[in-house]
Amino acid sequence: MWFLAVLWASCLLMGTQSQSSTSFRQADAGSGRCQYTFTVDSPTEASCPSPGSSPEMESLKSRLGLLEAMVARLVGGDTLSWSSQGSGSQSGVQDAYKQVMGEKAQLQREKQRLDRQVQDLQQRMEELRQETERLKSRPCMQQPPLRVPQIDNSFRTGSVPALSHLVSRPVNTQGDKSSLRDSKRHLENPGYQEMTAVVTEVSAPNLEGPADISGCGDLVWVQEPKVHRKAETIAGKYGVWMQDPEAKEPYNTEMVWRIDAIGSEVRQLFGYENMDQLSRGFPTKVLLLPESMESTGATMYRGSLYYQQKLSRILLRYDLLSENIAARRDLPHAGFHGQFPYSWGGYTDIDLAVDENGLWAIYSTSKAKGAIMISQLDPENLEVKGTWETKIRKTSVANAFMICGKMYTVASYTSLNTTINYMYDTATSQGKTISVPFKNRHRYNSMVDYNPTQRKLYAWDNYYMVTYNVRLGKQE
Questions:
Q1: In whole numbers, what is the pLDDT of the chain averaged over residues?
Q2: Taking the model in full, what pTM does it have?
Q3: Of 48, 74, 155, 340, which cross-links 364 as Cys (Cβ 3.0–4.6 Å)?
Q4: Residues 344 and 398 sit within 8 Å (Cβ to Cβ)
């Protein structure tokens, strides 16, 4: 029965195909007979293509396969061999299905990657928002316009014209009742002298040979930096290192001390016998400070490490011999943890320094409205012995140090060729602009301190621990 149905269907299909390609004619042959003519197109015609090359034939095969499947389902019998002609179509469908599933998986992976990127961007936006809020919270100090002195043609020849002196007033340390906890700051008429990192050529005598280390004077020259060591890890991108100018037993002035200042708990103090051992990276002493320190403002003096306690304005004296805290004192009204740092940041609100006259603190207060304050400290108990207020804002300079009772500021921490641009003399309570060339060879100078015994500047410049020879003389 199914064979007849298939044959009937095939005849119908073939009949449909042959209606347009066959003809039947009847004619008189002339001898009393009829002549019948049946015409079929040549095999080269489109209706009789070569096997396997005609779209119509392929369509016919497909239809026959479908009819066979329908008949098989009707009679419940086994499919005939014609079903094999539809296996190619089934395989094509499976391949198409696999391709679609593969593309779907690829799209899912791409979606997951884009989701991660969106999360990273959202996190970065949140960090930028927090940084914007922090910057908005910092005081915006207005100031009267500065009078720029007229510069004559001598500027082009390399000499630096004299600028107007900036006179400061002595401060009564007992009368400063302001607090950093004040929610509002009155910033009217601050009268600051803003400094910029302008580099000028200055004439200089021949400075070859060893530096003169006798006597005091003004800073007139800073040599090219000399590298002593590079830090090994990210924790050493910035830090503090020094030699004690007045060391005590069991250590001497050759001992080198180093602290990496990056980390949630900065407490390790590394000691090296000398510069050679520092260069080799072999510490002979590792001390763990009892309390964590903040910033790169620590210094070494008379057998003690002086540093700022983390998240406070408390100054600590750590005795190297007993390995204990020997003194602590709150620096009155001093800003801390990012209130009045140097321009590079790093919570450098309080910078301790040593020179020929002793121990100093460089900082600012809310009453000073961000102007640099200088206090001389008693090295035993950290009591404030005297305080001076300058006319230069602390956040406008990259760093500061003391030499012979004079404070000097560095204009930029990233410029390769910058200047030491300001000097304040505590002996006369006067400040003035200067222009002593200074190099940040590695473009991120986070610490500059002076050693009066070595007559050198010690600096930490983007992982590198460097020194600068200096000369003192008479400022023109």
A1: 78
A2: 0.60
A3: 340
A4: yes
CA end-to-end distance (rounded Å), the chain: 124
Residue 63's pLDDT is 67
Query: Which of 418, 427, 328, 329 lies closest to 374 in space, CA to CA?
Result: 427
Residue 439 has a CB neighbour count (10 Å cut-off) of 18
Total residues belonging to the chain: 476
Element (H, E) at 203: none
State how far the Cα of 291 lies from the Cα of 65, in Å rounded to an integer.
88
Say which residues have a Cβ less than 8 Å from residue 399's Cβ, sequence separation at least 6. 342, 344, 348, 351, 409, 410, 413, 445, 446, 447, 448
- Spatial CA neighbour of 358 closest among 299, 416, 313: 299
Longest CA–CA span in the chain (Å) reads 153
> 333-358 burial, b for 16+ CB within 10 Å, e for fewer?
bbbbbbbbbbbbebbbbbbbbbbebb
Whether 223 has a pLDDT exceeding 90, the answer reads yes
The Cβ of residue 241 has, within 10 Å, a number of other Cβ atoms equal to 27
Write b or e for each residue in 155-182: b if 16 or more Cβ atoms lie within 10 A of its Cβ, otherwise e: eeeeebeeeeebebeebeeeebeeebee
The stretch 137-141 carries a mean pLDDT of 55
- What is the 3-class SS of 298-335, one letter each residue? CEEECCEEEEEECCCCEEEEEECCCCEEEEEEECCCEC
Q: Among 353, 470, 467, which Cα is nearest to 402's?
A: 353
> Do residues 334 and 389 make contact, with C-beta atoms less than 8 angstroms apart?
no
Measuring CA to CA, which residue among 336, 329, 328 is closest to residue 295?
336
- CB count, 10 Å around CB of 269? 23
Distance separating alpha carbons of residues 392 and 371, to the nearest angstrom: 5
